[in-house]
Amino acid sequence: MTQTTNTTRTPLAPGEYSLDPSHTRVGFLARHLVVSKVRGSFEKVEAKITAGADLASSGVEVTIDVASIASRDEKRDAHLRSADFFDVEKYPTMTFHSTSTELATGGHFAVTGDLTIRDQTHPVILDVEYLGAEKSPWGTTVSAISASAEIDREQWGLTYNAVLESGGVVVSKKIVLEIEAELVSAPAAA
Predict the structure, then answer these.
(1) What is the pTM of this model?
(2) CA quadruple 16, 18, 23, 27: dihedral sign
(3) How far is CA 22 from CA 109, 180, 181, 183, in A?
(4) What phi and psi, each to the nearest 5 degrees, are found at residue 157?
(5) Does residue 177 form part of some domain?
(6) Strand 36-42 relative to strand 120-135: parallel, antiparallel, unpaired?
(7) CA angle centred on 25, ends 64 and 47, rounded to 5°
(8) 42 domain-assigned
(9) CA angle, 153 as apex, 171 and 126 as ends, to 5°?
(10) 139 in the Ramachandran plot: left (φ > 0), alpha (ψ -120 to 50) or beta?
């Protein structure tokens, strides 16, 4: 069965956007015990996306409530919130502030920005794919993006680990950031 759609792949219309929280996932993927993959997400994320007339005037500001981490295991989530990892009592949020956006290959965009975790800031390049826009049955226009990046968690002081008998480690240094987001026009200022 073939499904047709009227989704447009034109650039995001200029304006201010925010995330639709019920249709957005900001998450991560880590290797566990070298052999398996574990995914988690942050349930409380706020973002302001500015689509300018050109890429130079576009930008993204993201704030994540780190205590909202969810990996489908409460014991693991508690450990991730502890001083061994995110230390949420001391560092309750992480942020991303874009510094540039460039057109990349295959219709993707390279969004470079500063990622701050545990008060340590390092540059990250997100591979962002604009998925298009669609008019909802409720009269709103919804746009969607998919983004990812690979980071070394130890750069941000997330160094907890344990060595396995095989020589491997419990948690990988490399973490893949995964973002699937629906964007909605921000309400006009009063």
Answers:
(1) 0.87
(2) positive
(3) 24, 11, 9, 11
(4) 80, 10
(5) yes
(6) unpaired
(7) 40
(8) yes
(9) 120
(10) left
The answer as to whether 3 is a domain residue is no
**Residues 144, 163: Cα–Cα separation, whole Å:** 40
20: nearest Cα among 47, 53, 56, 58: 47
Q: Could you give the 3-state DSSP secondary structure of residue 177?
A: strand
In 3D, which of 181, 127, 129, 144 has the Cα closest to residue 5?
144
Q: How many structural domains comprise the chain? A: 1
User: Quick check: is 5 in a domain?
Assistant: no
Q: Are 143 and 188 in contact (CB under 8 A)?
A: no
Residue range 34-70, pLDDT digits in tens: 667 889 999 999 999 999 888 899 999 999 999 999 9
**What token pair was written down for 109?**
């965009």
Concatenating the DSSP letter of every residue in 1-25 gives -------B-SPPPSEEEEE-GGG-E
Domain that holds residue 91: 15-185
Q: Which residue has the tokens 């230390």?
A: 87
Whether 56 and 102 have beta carbons less than 8 Å apart is answered as no
- For the chain, the farthest-separated pair of C-alpha atoms sits apart, in whole angstroms, at 61
Cα separation of 145 and 182, whole Å? 7
Q: In this structure, what CATH number is given to the domain that contains residue 92?
A: 2.40.128.110
Three-state DSSP state, 78: helix
Residues 16-38 have pLDDT tens digits of 999 999 999 999 988 776 667 88
Rounded Cα gap, residues 176 and 27, in angstroms: 8
